[in-house]
Q: What sequence folds into this?
């Protein structure tokens, strides 16, 4: 009898252990947006949801996007009656030049970007302090009833949120030359986002709320979450309109599809359609300035549309080394969204300005594929903020590899 009871108890313990192991996998993981909002309990939940909405609307829209321009360009040479590689700089990273890769040429690239966010609208993410948008005071009013009720009692509570927010992005890019003047490109980011939030609430001692001699009442809440998924798929077309008169001019069309999850800060959640002009010219086979101007229409909400622009130049120091420098900008055409309870920060119309600097290296050795040398290029780049608008990192580091078939 005792043996039977022992077997039953053992089976019960084994069942409990299996339930313990299996149950967590059956509970769906929270999104980063939900994790951030969870640090605001009870009556403060709406304030946390407002803060989470700010980041879900801005983080993915801030991801840097590399251009479609291949490092190598091929043009027709009448002397050899064939397409030959042009002796020009290796090209920009985050902007475009007018040159196409060449007919039946395929450029494949893989890039890695590390974005560790530091500020939003100039506010330090390590110390976001609550702010009453009506009075400017650094507290949130917590009330016992509706504002219309004369018996309603409100007490001030200050909240300080500390955020660690990071995105690691691996992008896959393919550009194919359909004709001498036409390139098509597909760009897909794979995104890992990480959030750790710690919020401290400070208010009057609940025993004697009006007595300043009592210590403050403190409540600390924390949450962290990680998510990995695809970002927004970007499809692009570039067509050369003019060559050598007095510069190369190309037009571009873009389509961004909302394949990324906005709640995990991996996608914008909107369909974006863009039109662009790219101008460039090469001087002495060494220097290549370029200018880009585009308009990106948000098909879901027009007020979230943007004008994007860049101005820069590439310097070919050696045949194997090109230096890249660009001023990059994007400007919202209007204030696209308003947060109902902006106790930390309100979404504003933003002019995001950045400086991009780096280099491209073409190694002297080549990878042999099917008895032919495959030209390939490495790039290393840094993006630096020039102002405080939007959600920003003090520096964004990027490197990648490209090969042309």
A:
């Amino acid at each position: 009898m005792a043996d039977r009871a022992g077997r039953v108890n053992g089976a019960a313990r084994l069942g409990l252990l299996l339930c313990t192991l299996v149950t967590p996998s059956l509970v769906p993981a929270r999104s980063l947006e939900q994790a951030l909002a969870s640090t605001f309990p009870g009556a403060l939940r709406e304030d946390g949801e407002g803060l989470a909405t700010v980041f879900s609307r801005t983080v993915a829209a801030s991801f840097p996007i590399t251009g479609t321009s291949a490092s190598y360009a091929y043009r027709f040479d009448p002397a050899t009656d064939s397409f030959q590689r042009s002796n020009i700089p290796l090209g920009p990273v985050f902007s475009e030049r007018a040159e196409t890769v060449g007919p039946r040429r395929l450029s494949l690239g893989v890039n890695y970007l590390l974005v560790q966010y530091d500020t939003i609208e100039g506010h330090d993410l390590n110390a976001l302090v609550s702010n009453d948008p009506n009075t400017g005071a650094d507290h949130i009013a917590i009330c016992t009833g509706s504002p219309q009720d004369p018996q309603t009692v409100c007490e001030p509570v200050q909240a300080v949120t500390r955020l660690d927010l990071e995105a690691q992005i691996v992008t896959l890019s393919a550009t194919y030359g359909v004709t001498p003047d036409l390139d098509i490109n597909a760009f897909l980011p794979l995104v890992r986002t990480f959030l750790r939030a710690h919020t401290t609430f400070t208010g009057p001692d609940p025993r004697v709320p009006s007595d300043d001699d009592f210590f403050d009442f403190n409540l600390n809440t924390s949450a962290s979450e990680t998510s990995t998924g695809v970002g927004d798929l970007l499809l692009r077309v570039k067509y050369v309109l003019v060559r050598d008169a007095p510069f190369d001019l190309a037009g571009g069309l873009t389509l961004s599809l909302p394949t990324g999850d906005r709640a995990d800060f991996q996608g914008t959640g909107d369909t974006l359609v863009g039109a662009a002009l790219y101008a460039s010219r090469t001087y002495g086979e060494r220097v290549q300035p370029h200018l880009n101007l585009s308009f990106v229409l948000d098909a879901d909400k027009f007020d979230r549309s943007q004008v994007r622009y860049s101005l820069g130049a590439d310097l070919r120091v050696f045949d194997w080394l090109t230096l890249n420098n660009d001023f990059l900008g994007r400007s919202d055409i209007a204030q696209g969204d308003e947060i109902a309870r902006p106790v930390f920060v309100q979404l504003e119309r933003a002019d995001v300005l950045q400086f991009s600097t780096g280099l491209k290296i073409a190694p002297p050795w080549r990878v042999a594929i099917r008895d032919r040398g495959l030209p390939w290029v490495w790039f290393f780049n840094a993006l630096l903020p020039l102002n405080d608008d939007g959600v920003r990192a003090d520096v964004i580091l990027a490197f990648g590899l490209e090969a042309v078939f």
Observations:
- The first strand starts at residue 74 and ends at 77.
- Residues 32-124+164-404 form a domain with the Porin fold (CATH 2.40.160.40).
